[in-house]
From TrEMBL:
HAMAP family: TMP_synthase (MF_00097). InterPro entries: Aldolase_TIM, ThiamineP_synth_sf, ThiamineP_synth_TenI, TMP_synthase. It comes from Desulforamulus ferrireducens. Residues 14-197 form the Thiamine phosphate synthase/TenI domain. The lineage of its organism: Bacteria, Bacillati, Bacillota, Clostridia, Eubacteriales. Pathway: Cofactor biosynthesis; thiamine diphosphate biosynthesis; thiamine phosphate from 4-amino-2-methyl-5-diphosphomethylpyrimidine and 4-methyl-5-(2-phosphoethyl)-thiazole: step 1/1. Signal peptide: none annotated. GO terms for molecular function: magnesium ion binding; thiamine-phosphate diphosphorylase activity. It comes from the Bacteria. The keyword Hydrolase does not apply. Pfam families: TMP-TENI. This is Thiamine-phosphate synthase.
Length: 220
């Protein structure tokens, strides 16, 4: 059975993304702390300079998946459909440069499918092709993604909500405990972050703060 929209919205609340090159210490330690702090979903995104490949990538993926399973945090793989299938991951996340969402949906069956979109057209197309949630960003400036587009703010999230679209949406890019509320107020169901947790002095504390920001009442 496909994930329900209601469950997907809950999973997106504090969505932590990480690859080995996003942290200064052992990724497993960082993820353990993030889990302790309250992340709701995890994505393994092993890419960019210094990223692991081949057996090393698979080995780390397996270790992270095991940790996530112990704590019942769904484990999503970025881009690498074959790895997701080989590990029986809970889902995959793809961008516009990857295979079309419909092709990926066909391959992964009922696993969770997330798609990054940058325009209204891309958003509707991703939904039509079977996305369970949309990733929208970069909302704020980020240096984490080497080929990231310019910060686009919350315009697209707001536009889709004004259209009446209820599909689960997560914001990404430069999100921190201090600006997470802005993303939620625009209509996102949650926030996805890399460095706000992976490079925090205390990943536990930073995750707790993100969790609080996402669950706090909108200002006004
Ligand atoms: N896609 C858009 S921005 C981004 C990705 C993967 C990087 C987000 O990283 P950070 O450190 O949370 O800004
Ligand atoms: Mg991709």
């Amino acid at each position: 059975m496909r994930v329900t929209a209601a469950r997907m919205r809950e999973l997106l609340k504090v969505y932590f993304i990480l690859g080995s090159n996003n942290c200064r210490k052992n990724p497993l330690e960082v993820i353990a702390e993030a889990i302790e702090g309250g992340i709701t979903l995890f994505q393994y995104r092993e890419k960019g300079s210094g990223a692991l490949v081949g057996e090393e990538k698979v080995k780390l993926a397996r270790a992270i998946q095991e940790l996530c399973q112990q704590h019942r945090i769904p484990f999503i793989v970025n881009d690498d459909i074959e790895l997701a299938l080989a590990l029986n991951a809970d889902g995959v996340h793809i961008g516009q440069e990857d295979a079309p969402a419909a092709v990926v949906r066909e391959k992964i069956g009922d696993k969770i499918l997330g798609v990054s979109v940058h325009t209204r057209e891309q958003a509707y197309e991703a939904i039509r092709q079977g996305a369970d949630y949309l990733g929208i960003g970069p909302i704020f400036a980020t240096t984490t993604k080497e080929d990231a587009k310019e910060a686009a703010g919350t315009t697209l999230i707001k536009a889709l909500r004004e259209d009446g679209l209820t599909v689960p949406i997560v914001g990404i890019g430069g999100i921190t405990p201090d600006n997470a509320r802005v993303v939620m107020a625009a209509g996102a169901d949650g926030v996805s972050v890399i460095t706000a947790i992976s490079l925090a002095d205390s990943p536990v504390q930073s995750t707790r703060k993100l969790y609080q920001a996402v669950h706090s009442q909108p200002e006004g």
